[in-house]
Amino acid sequence: MEALKQELKKNIIEQINLEDMTVEDIANEDLLFGGGLGLDSIDALELIVMLDKNYGIRLTDPKEGRAIFESINTMAAYVAEHRTK
Amino acid sequence: MNQPYYIKSSCSIKNSQVSLNGSIVFKNETDSFSEFIKAAYKQQNTNYPKFFKMDNLSKLAFLTADILLKNENLNPEETNDIAMVFSNKASSLDTDRKHQDSIQNKENYYPSPAIFVYTLPNICIGEISIKYKLYSENSFFIFNGFNASHLCSYTKSLISSNKATQVLCGWVEFDDEDNYEAFIYLVAKEGTIKHSEEDILTLYNS
Domain named Carrier: which ranges (chain A) (predicted)? Predict the structure, then answer.
């Protein structure tokens, strides 16, 4: 699970172009939205695409994203349970 | 009687260098556009993290406008009555190509929302408007080449009809890493350089 969390952090930094931010700058429990990362609604859509592309997870209801994308911990738990690739 | 207007200041980014009011403020010839614009951003202490999420056209337009407007010492907490009239030839073609690439293969069909939102050229005007709280008129025209005549007459019309007290206008072109150019100037009722088609062309070609 720890490896998946590190992978998610790396993917988020790359996908969302978080310049000058490293994996070490994101704590597992940090709020991804409304926190220090400064993510916006377009970033949320990018994360939905990333789940589909990298892990074969299709979120049919965007409202689900609110809980899933709360933190790296919640994302990793969801990906571990639902991934198809 | 036509009231005279003036070009208060100008900024250009082309050939791997940034010039403000005719003086080179940054030069870096060895890097790609991506590396060059990032280095210019850092050297100018821009400190605007959203910059890195922008497409190439918006990075080019935003940084050129930002360097010029920072020099105007505007109050960032106040709304500024500055209209924007931009133009180019390639529209948002660089980003359009990237979006096309992401949807080309039906077996690997993952359009990126962050790319798609930049598939219009006037989005770069929005990026500048957000930072400088510009709620006034704005337009983005597509021309075959730099059209000083149109920019000049349109700008005069905006100021004389009280649509704005100043107009930020110019040419912001990004076709690919080797074909980019930005020239932006600020027109107002006071200044030193006459706002005429001839003077605009002289500045553009300098």
Answer: 2-83
Distance CA B76, CA B59 (A): 20
Q: How many residues in total does chain A contain? A: 85
For residue B183, pLDDT over 60 is answered with yes
A43 touching chain B per CB within 8 A? yes
Residue B110 touches chain A, beta carbons under 8 Å: yes
Quick: pLDDT tens for A40-84. Answer: 889 999 999 999 999 999 998 878 888 999 999 999 999 999 999
Helix or strand or coil: residue B184?
Answer: strand
Domain locations along chain B? 6-205
The answer to whether the beta carbons of residues A48 and A58 sit under 8 Å apart is no
CB-based contact B186:B68 (threshold 8 Å): yes
Q: What one-letter code names the amino acid at A56? A: G
Q: What's chain B's length in residues?
A: 206
Q: Which chain A residue's Cα is nearest to B112? A: A46
- Chain B nearest C-alpha distance from A17 (Å): 6
In contact, B170 and B86? CB cutoff 8 Å: yes
Q: How far apart are CA B86 and CA B150, in angstroms?
A: 11
How far is Cα B192 from Cα B127, in angstroms, rounded to an integer?
29
Cβ–Cβ of A53/B111 closer than 8 Å?
Answer: no
- pLDDT tier for residue A21 given thresholds of 50, 70 and 90: confident
Q: Which domains does chain A have, with CATH numbers?
A: 2-82 (1.10.1200.10)
